[in-house]
Design a protein that fits this description.
The complex is a heterodimer of chains A (168) and B (953).
Chain A (H helix, E strand, L loop, with lengths): L15 E3 L2 E5 L3 E8 L2 H8 L10 E2 L2 E5 L2 E7 L12 E5 L4 E7 L3 H5 L15 E6 L2 E9 L2 E7 L3 H13 L1
Antiparallel strand pairs in A: 1-2, 2-8, 3-6, 3-7, 4-5, 5-6, 8-11, 9-10, 10-11
Chain B lengths: L12 E10 L2 E7 L3 H7 L6 E2 L6 E2 L12 E5 L5 E6 L10 E4 L13 H4 L8 H5 L6 H13 L15 E12 L3 H12 L4 E4 L16 H12 L4 E4 L2 E7 L3 E7 L13 E13 L3 E3 L12 E3 H9 L9 E5 L2 H12 L4 E6 L6 H9 L4 E3 L1 E7 L6 E6 L5 E5 L2 E5 L2 E3 L2 H5 L4 E4 L4 E4 L6 E3 L30 E3 L4 E2 H9 L5 H8 L12 H12 L3 H4 L13 H5 L16 H6 L3 E5 L2 E6 L7 H14 L2 E4 L4 E6 L3 H8 L12 E7 L5 E11 L2 E6 L4 H14 L7 E4 L4 E7 L3 H5 L3 E2 L12 E7 L2 E7 L7 E7 L3 H12 L5 E2 L2 H10 L40 H4 L4 E8 L11 E3 L10 E11 L4 E9 L8 E6 L2 E8 L14
Helix pairs in contact in B: 5-6, 7-8, 11-13, 17-22
Chain lengths: 168, 953
């Protein structure tokens, strides 16, 4: 067997420096979609508290819907295992890539294509939304920093759109 | 006074003079001028030709209400903008514009013959005259009318500019930065709310810009607003539409006013969601309707005041006012004080406020009460007017070079009406005023009918002793509608203002009736002898003023037009010379030509190699859905036509998905990974649709099922390895999976490692050969592809594209949903009876499959076609007939859905939907094409290896 396979990602590692904002690829992450009728079942599987209100984000887990959570973990972490049959765990680590949008104009740049009222999107919240026609998940990590998740094949388009907006 | 520029006054910057060009001639201008004010200052009165009669036209208004002075601005290749209002266009050094709708020149226009023949062009003329013969319409009438009647020319070059867009949110959005809007903004801003104040002009102020007494207040107020962090001020921004839930579309013009446009965006689309909308759009003065009221030099009184006090321009040396409202008197008083010569004030009313009369006397202005203008002399500009007493008596002539119309005021309720707010008629104002809001919105200032312009008389047209059928008293200047056109519409039986509008074109198109709506309504009301409230008001539609396509597109042009989705392996394909095609939003390699190969040669080679050795194909775009939960099998059993509950873990099954109507919606091979976990695949284009459909059923029909769906399309890169040598290529790379035929049969799935990476390895085939589909986490797709290419080199492994894939599957009679089906094909029509579980109690679409029409004979059914000439490849989409000798139009019994050259078989093959096709096996059918009718024999859809011997190896 020859050397290990090399990963290739759809966007440059960055950083891209715009006017009062920068963009870069987020570090590699493990991602899981967790579905269950009750949050308690998920907490049992993870052994950690998770947010129960839609839009909440805690312990690397975003609550995206009434029965839907998106979990981020450092790369290499073992997949959560459910033995009760009440939690659906699906690995989606490579489904999306993360983009870190940072700087004084971060919210302004995201608002060029995202219809959310970001003034009312507090630090520590997460949600699924869109940038123009493309579905994204955003996590506000700080007033001036967003983690943006986008499906892999849409990432180059989003990167171009955001870097274009960042230079305007 | 130089030309018509007043010696002092105005907000123009007299220290910054420059030249502008209009129709090739050079004129002087100052910074702060509009094109209208600059040309008026140079004595220009003629700005354009009218839409239908090609009558000479001048300036009527001073802002976006201007109906006449539409011009085209040129600023280099691709930067040509037609139909701009000269009153809204800011000039800069080197500015260049031209007039429209005239040939060969503005002063001598050939089309003006229409005006002489005007009596032959009444309202509805086009509808009545060009009806017959019908065949003349497309070839003769329409092109001719288009040439004659028109606005500016469409640009023909690609627009080199780029455009920006954004969303914005605020608590209070104020549209219109006149005194009322500025007051509203100050009030809202002081309570710490997020405020956006927008105005279409180059500076905030609205009516205050033409009132020097308010300038100190204006400067103070704007300075205060500009200093507040919670206030955003957008000038040169037009709110063009008001949509549901306080969503307002606005366009900011960023570079059109600059001599050097730089490299920034030309315009920016603002999509604003507001807590509350305050409409402070003001009011537009109403013209008066009299013979010759469209002569250049006849304009709104308020506009003349704006030109005098904001731009320092006299619209004439001897200016007459025709008023039915006090506001005109105030305007000419202010103009007289600014140095404009006033010829006389004529007022249709017998009585006017004594105070106004006293002021007129003090300023030495002659006043004529109870009189009306009944005619205008001069063709390219006013030279004199005819005046008559309303109670009869002799007419007299008054020399003048401009006539101002003061016909009262119409609140600008366009945006209010877009939002579906209701209107109420106010007799005292003679106008519709905003009444009950439909959104969280309110109107302030003149827009709400709250103005201090004085009193007026509301009349439909000025009294005249002339024959009303022979005069040209215009109502809608932009669409060339006269008072007699509206009366004609009423005589011809139109009663609703909506019908009158469409018959006469009053208030249509880019103008949206800004100056014409109320006068048109009054005239219809008089002609029908019914109050205006019984006739109604026409609907205002967005946009308030025309907007560029560029602004509405925003960023969505060029590479940002829409996402082009690429797989992880796409880069390899590009570097290796692939020719691509778009499938939904995905870019897929269609074929990989070698030097000197055309598509056919490349596809033939690719097919040959798959059948004889091994081919490699990027199948990453296939839709994938992970179905997890204790009820996963039950759920799939209800969704798909065939049984799923007995499928063992480790095995795959072909799934056929119907819509409720029983027609094929999608298909794909799916695998059971564990009792409670399935890996579904869908067609590339159907991925999102299938997930939505399944989620819809799960949430609305079977919420009791414990099963969840997750899209995993992009989680995996998928490499299909197909051909007799596929196993040999794979073997050295795989760990933990026994690839032998016994341990890993066709239609099975195994999990293990490939090149050290976890894989879901499918043994499936869309080619009819021994085949594997290797799923690995997406980021490894390209590296794995390259490793397999290296491993397969000794077998001449050949990358193949979607075209060879199509040929290979057609040879096996595998359908492509959406190509061989069209949304009206049942499983039985497609010959897929075997995939329908006869014993299943239910599945989506089952009930429809028993409907009489779906079991009737004569339905179109999918069959194979073999042409008599084996070298002829039929055209996909070609129609099929049973008898080529029947008279035209022939009865078409079907069409070709797929057709290829099959290198494997050394002949052409085709699939076709043919009425009752399953019962036509062996029959000859005919495909008439230009020049030749082709003969083809109906055959089985499986052209190659019918027994499947090549699969089970």
């Amino acid at each position: 067997m020859s050397e290990a396979l090399v990963r290739s990602d759809p966007i440059p590692a960055g950083p891209f420096l715009g006017r009062d904002a920068s963009l870069k690829a987020a570090p590699r992450l493990a991602r899981y979609v967790l579905r269950a009728r009750a949050s308690a079942a998920v907490e049992k599987v993870l052994g950690a508290q998770i947010p129960t209100a839609i839009g909440g984000f805690a312990n690397g887990v975003a609550c995206l819907g009434p029965d839907e959570w998106l979990m981020f973990a450092s790369d290499g972490r073992e997949s959560p295992v459910d033995e009760s049959g009440s939690v659906s765990v699906t690995e989606v680590s490579d489904r999306s890539v993360g983009i870190i949008l940072e700087g004084a104009r971060a919210a302004e740049i995201l608002a060029t294509g995202c219809p959310l009222d970001l003034d009312h999107f507090a630090v520590g919240r997460a949600t699924r939304t869109i940038y123009e026609t493309v579905e994204i998940v955003i996590v506000r990590e700080a007033m001036d920093r967003f983690h943006i998740e986008v499906w892999r094949s849409f990432a180059p388009w989003l990167w171009t759109a955001l870097t274009t907006a960042a230079t305007e | 006074m130089t030309g018509y520029r007043l010696p002092t006054g105005g907000r123009i910057d007299r220290a910054t003079p420059f030249k502008v060009r209009f129709d090739g001639r050079s004129y002087s201008a100052f910074a702060g001028d509009s094109l209208a004010s600059a040309l008026l200052a140079n004595g220009v009165q003629l700005f354009g030709r009218s839409f239908k009669y090609h009558r000479p036209r001048g300036i009527v208004g001073s802002g976006s209400e201007e109906p006449n002075a539409l011009i085209s601005v040129t600023r280099g290749p691709g930067r040509f903008t037609p139909n701009l209002r000269a009153t809204n266009v800011e000039v800069y050094p080197g500015f260049e514009a031209e007039s429209q709708n005239r040939w060969p020149s503005l002063r001598f226009d050939f089309g003006a013959i229409n005006d002489r023949l005007g009596m032959f062009f009444p309202a509805g003329f086009y509808n009545k005259t060009f009806m017959w013969p019908r065949s003349f319409w497309e070839r003769l009438y329409e092109p001719a009318i288009r040439r004659m009647a028109g606005l500016g020319k469409s640009p023909t070059e690609e627009d080199p500019d780029h455009y920006s867009a954004t969303y914005a949110h605020c608590d209070v959005l104020i549209i219109g930065a006149g005194p009322a809007g500025i007051d509203a903004a100050l009030e809202a801003a002081s309570s710490n709310q997020r405020v956006i104040l927008i105005d279409e002009q180059d500076e905030a102020g609205g009516g205050a810009l033409a009132d020097p007494a308010l300038w100190p207040w204006l400067a103070r107020s704007m300075k205060a607003l500009a200093g507040m962090p919670n206030v955003t001020i957008l000038t040169r921004t037009t709110a063009f539409g008001y949509f549901h839930d306080n969503f307002i579309g606005a366009v900011e013009r960023m570079t059109d006013h600059l001599a050097d446009i730089g490299s920034g965006p030309r315009e920016k689309l603002w999509r604003i969601r507001a807590g509350e909308v305050v409409l402070a759009q003001g009011a537009i003065e109403r013209p008066l309707v009299f013979d010759g009221n469209d002569t250049p030099g006849v304009m709104l009184s308020s506009a003349a005041k704006v030109f005098a006090l904001r731009y320092g321009v006299a619209v004439g040396r001897s200016v007459a006012l025709m008023a039915s409202h006090d506001s005109g008197w105030q305007d000419v008083f202010a103009m007289a004080k600014a140095g404009v010569g006033i010829a006389a004030i004529i007022d249709v009313r017998d009585e006017v406020d004594a105070d106004l009369r006293a002021q007129a006397e003090e300023l030495g202005i002659a006043v004529r009460l109870g009189q009306s203008v009944i005619g205008v002399r001069g063709r390219h500009g006013v030279t004199a007017i005819e005046i008559a007493r309303n109670d009869g008596g002799a007419s007299s002539t008054l020399a003048c070079d401009a006539v101002l119309m003061a016909g009262g005021w119409t609140p600008t309720v366009h945006l209010w009406s877009h939002s579906k707010g209701t209107l109420a008629w106010h007799d005292d104002l003679g106008a519709f005023v905003p009444d009950v809001p439909a959104e969280k919105a309110r109107c302030v200032g003149a827009c709400a009918g709250l103005w201090n312009f004085g009193q007026g008389l509301t009349i439909d047209a000025l009294p005249t002793p002339k024959d009303k059928a022979r005069i040209k008293a215009f109502v809608d200047f932009q669409n060339d509608v006269t008072a007699k056109d509206i009366r004609l519409a009423v005589r011809e039986g139109f009663r609703s203002i909506e019908h009158i509008k469409r018959y006469t074109t009053n208030g249509m198109a880019t103008d949206q009736g800004k100056t014409s709506n109320l006068n048109g309504l009054q005239i219809a009301s008089t002609a029908l002898s019914r109050p205006v409230t019984d006739i109604g008001l026409t609907t205002f539609r967005p946009p308030y003023t025309p907007q560029t396509f560029g602004a509405l597109a925003g960023h969505a042009k060029g590479s940002l037009f829409q996402p082009t989705r690429k797989t992880n392996i796409d880069g390899w394909a590009e570097e290796n010379g692939a020719v691509f095609e778009l499938v939904a939003q995905w870019r897929r390699a269609r074929y990989f030509p070698k030097a000197g190969e055309d598509m056919l040669a490349a596809v033939n080679r690719e097919c040959r190699m798959v059948r004889s050795s091994v081919g490699i194909f990027d199948a990453s775009t296939l839709g994938k859905i992970e179905v997890v939960g204790p009820d996963a099998a039950e759920f799939l059993n209800r969704m798909y036509t065939n049984p799923w509950k007995a499928l063992e873990p480790g095995r795959c099954r072909y799934g056929l998905l119907l819509k409720e109507d029983g027609f094929i919606a999608d298909d794909g091979v799916s695998a059971r990974l564990a009792p409670d976990r399935f890996h579904l695949t869908t067609t590339t284009g159907g991925a999102a649709r299938v997930l939505n459909m399944m989620e819809d059923y799960l949430q609305t029909e079977w919420p009791d099922l414990n099963v969840w769906l997750t899209s995993t399309t992009e989680q995996y890169a998928v490499i299909a390895l197909q051909g007799p040598n596929a196993r040999k290529v794979l073997e050295p790379l795989v760990e933990g999976i026994d690839l032998s035929a016994e341990a890993f049969p066709h239609m099975a799935i195994r999990e293990g490692l490939i090149c050290g990476i976890p894989t879901r390895l499918f043994r499936v085939s869309f080619t009819g050969e021994l085949g594997f589909e290797i799923n690995v986490p997406s980021a490894y797709g390209r590296a794995l592809w390259e490793r397999i290419m290296a491993e397969g080199a000794r077998y001449d492994i050949t990358p193949y594209g979607t075209e060879a894939m199509h040929v290979l599957r057609a040879e096996k009679g595998f359908i492509i949903v959406g190509q061989d089906t069209d949304g009206t094909v049942t499983p039985f029509d497609a010959g897929l009876d075997w995939a329908v579980g006869k014993k299943k109690p239910d599945f989506v679409g089952k009930r429809s499959l028993a409907r009489p029409d779906l079991v009737a004979s004569g339905r179109k059914q999918l069959v194979g076609l073999l042409t008599e000439d084996p070298n002829h490849v039929l055209e996909e989409g070609a129609q099929i007939v049973a008898d080529p000798k029947q008279p035209i139009p022939m009865t078409m019994i079907g069409h070709v859905t797929s057709s290829y050259w099959s290198e494997t078989l050394g002949r052409s093959i085709a699939l076709a939907l043919v009425a009752d096709g399953h019962h036509k096996m062996g029959e000859d059918l005919f495909i008439p094409m230009p020049g030749k009718t082709h003969v083809a024999k109906v055959s089985s859809m499986i052209f190659y290896d019918a027994e499947g011997a090549r699969l089970n190896v």
